[in-house]
Amino acid sequence: MHDQAIKILEKQREDLVVRVLKKHEEMEASRSFTERILAGISELFLLLDQDFKIIQTNREFLERTGYCLLADQQLALEDLVDPPTAEAIRQAFAKGEFNEFEANLRTNKGAGLPVKMRGSTHVHPNGLVLHMLICSDCSEFYELMGRMQDGQKQLIHSSRLASLGEMAAGVGHELTQPLNAILLFARNCLKALDSPDDHKAMLRENLEIIIDRVNKAASIISTMRSFGRKEEEDRSPVDLNEIIRKILSFLESQLRLSEVTLDLLLADSPCVVLGVEVRLEQVFLNLVQNAVQAMGREPFPRLTISSRVTECLNPKNMRNEPYIVVAVADNGEGIAEELQKKIFDPFFTTREVGTGMGLGLSIVDRIIRGFAGYIEVESVPGKGTCFSVYIPQFLEAKMTEGAPEKTLEARP
Prior knowledge:
alpha+beta, five-stranded mixed β-sheet, 22% strand, disordered C terminus
């Protein structure tokens, strides 16, 4: 009887050991399966408990961030993001509305890794709460965007230099006048030196004229130099009326040589937009130069430039908002209807081969779109063309009152 009880107990012990081993094997197989799945995810995976402590990650997360999770080391959400972002993540999980947003993950070396986050919460039947975060690395995307922006800036700068080249004839004429005057009055001074006492007044007058002409020539050169070398800055309030006046002053000699009659109909009040001055100068310089060239065969060329404030539909929010409209109109040869849809395409040009690259209007369109605006063209062949530039008006009071609250977006 005693031996039989011992055998029964031995059998139960063996069965228990077998069941424990099988359960261990199942757990190991499940863990191995989970690890293989996580290893195959190219995105960064984070599993957090209800206290937002990280309990599991994938290999991609460890490689991108440089962390090494040891048994005695446990990362928390606050170790990976700044406090405002951590609090926003907690609130998003609490509300169950975790929309995709951008943030910076803090790596082991302290650098910021730009990612797009997506999250979800899972509740186990035993009541255990788990939060899952999947982060997409955006560093390559932002690097590519940075290179594209640098290329765009170089393209705009090249277009600006090309515009300067096209104005060489007008500027040459403008410089010829002061140089001829300097030469004439310098010769008069040389002759007057034969009897300086008798010509003191004339010598003084001629030297003052020479100094004035030198200053004028230096001013022309300085204007060209500053226009060609001006660097871009951050966006700021810019008065389009002032830009138009500056451009027309710069093109004064070109307009005079082309015998263009100018009608300037600018609004009485400032037309302020939020933009970059050098880029807006490039926009209107291109439009005015194109208008002058389009009137090359017109016996009585007339250029009309106007500005005004109007209510327009904002295509982004579908609401009527104040826009600044600057119209540049000419009475030149016009643009055929079938070509009007192509004029903003890169490298499309109606000029003769070798006289233009076809980048002017393409750059103009890109710049205006970058300032949340748009450009329209109306043209009748043989009667002229009008380009209208629409840019949202800058309202400082509105910007202050309606300033958006801080979001989770954090671009590098």
